[in-house]
Write a structure and sequence with these properties.
The chain is α+β, with helices and mostly antiparallel strands. Helices cover 41% and strands 19% of the residues. The strands form 5 sheets. Strands 1, 2, 3, 4, 5, 6, 7, 14 and 15 form a 9-stranded antiparallel sheet that branches. It has a two-stranded antiparallel sheet with strand order 8-9.
Length: 415
């Protein structure tokens, strides 16, 4: 468990920031031990109706978790309900609308991650098949409208749902209707973090397009290739998109910490009269909530998870802009990320021609929403940029991972 030396009884803003920056710095890995992780979300649906399977009830998601317990060594409970299962190589968890996330322990070997994923995917789908259900890898619910999807019985989600109603019009779509594929990667020091974080942000429109996999939106054909991006833009501008200081000359662990503590807390964890901890709605900022916590505790981690930028920092970098995809595309995307970020000198050399601003990234997203594969992005046809990006990645990968990458993206007709 990460720990920090005790500070003065009443924490100052500087103490909170130092706690966060020390935590980020402690996530640095040896340059020869950098790994990649996968968080793949799925919908559980009825095969005939394509409707979402609910958490409660016969053959519901809760029952599925209970049947999967023998394959795991520990359980994740919140507010009296089972929401996840964990072992040494994988973790199952649930998103607000009962989307099932399969997270694989980080590795430097994409093929190893794929093998573990397939193992658990097969276990889960064998159970679902007996119920005439399936595990769907798409970016948006195929048949059920979000207004008809119940949130999980988790206080955190209730507070988030209420907050997002006041900050935008897409919180309901994000929480109940979307599923993503998130890839995480390590950094070896703060300078490496800055380089990788900024590069990932510049590339997010290309990552979103190459992973676009949402044929349906609210039970109708979807024509927006970046529907996930559009949804997130309408959730909460303060905590989504690209953090404001990302391309500032002094961007750093500290700047990211300042971004965290300036957010509305949404909710707080407090001790009740019965000496139990419970969630309550909060009207305070994160720095106010943490001001009485001079020593690192789980609340610091909580507020790291309550921001949703396109690229998120924990003790690793998490790229969050892509749709859920079938396995071949998922691992092609992982291989793409690995190859691009293996040699930052090569990546930065290629990215030198790209504009480095939030405005330019937003404009790239706008162009892709309008014209998709026909768009001009960062001054070039997007198909040219995608081909350049893939070729750059292939130069760094071994033969096996090169095949994973090439086989996964044949649907685009890229070189």
């Amino acid at each position: 468990m990460f720990s920090i030396q005790k500070a003065d009884p009443m924490s100052t803003t500087e103490t909170i920031i130092k706690n966060y920056t020390d935590f980020f710095a402690a996530g640095s890995k040896h340059p020869n031990d950098l790994k990649y992780g996968l968080e793949a979300e799925h919908f559980i649906i009825d095969k005939d109706t394509r409707k979402a399977v609910t958490y409660f009830g016969e053959n519901g998601v809760l029952q599925l978790l209970n049947e999967l317990k023998p394959h795991f060594i520990s359980e994740y409970w919140t507010d009296g309900y089972l929401f996840g299962l964990i072992n040494d190589e994988a973790e199952l968890s649930l998103e607000p609308g009962s989307q099932l996330e399969i997270s694989i322990t980080a590795s430097s070997d994409i093929a190893e991650i794929a093998a573990i994923y397939h193992k658990y995917h097969c276990i889960i789908t064998s159970i679902l098949a007996s119920r005439n259900q399936e595990l769907l890898s798409e970016g948006y619910q195929p048949a059920t409208l979000v207004n008809d999807i119940e949130l999980l019985p988790k206080k955190r989600y209730t507070f988030m749902n209420g907050h997002f109603r006041s900050t935008g019009n897409r919180g309901i779509n994000m929480m109940r209707g979307t599923a993503s594929c998130q890839v995480v990667l390590d950094y070896f020091n703060e300078k490496d973090f800055i380089s990788k974080y900024q590069s990932a942000c510049i590339l997010t429109p290309l990552f979103a397009l190459i992973s676009s996999n949402s044929p349906i939106f609210e039970a109708k054909p979807n024509e927006n290739p970046l529907i996930r991006t559009e949804i997130w833009r309408g959730v909460d501008p303060a905590r989504c998109g690209i953090p404001p200081a990302t391309f500032a000359p002094d961007f750093s662990f500290r700047k990211y910490a300042e971004y965290i503590i300036g957010q509305a807390a949404i909710f707080e964890i407090v001790e009740s009269k019965s000496n139990k901890f419970e969630s309550i709605k909060s009207e305070r900022k994160v720095d106010e909530v943490l001001s009485v916590k001079p020593v690192w505790d789980d609340d610091y981690l909580l507020y790291l998870s309550l921001v949703f930028p396109d690229v998120r920092l924990r003790q690793y970098i998490e790229i969050r802009v892509t749709d859920s995809m079938p396995a071949p595309q998922t691992f092609a995307y992982m291989a793409l990320i690995k190859g691009l970020f293996l040699d930052m000198e090569c990546l930065n050399k290629w990215l030198a021609k790209f504009p480095r601003s939030i405005e330019a990234i937003t404009e790239a997203g706008d162009a892709l929403m309008e014209k998709g594969m026909g768009a001009i992005v960062y001054g070039e046809p997007v198909t040219d940029l995608l081909n350049q990006m893939i070729e750059l990645s292939l130069e760094q990968l071994n033969q096996k991972e090169s095949e994973i990458l090439k086989n996964g993206f044949t649907r685009y007709g890229l070189n």
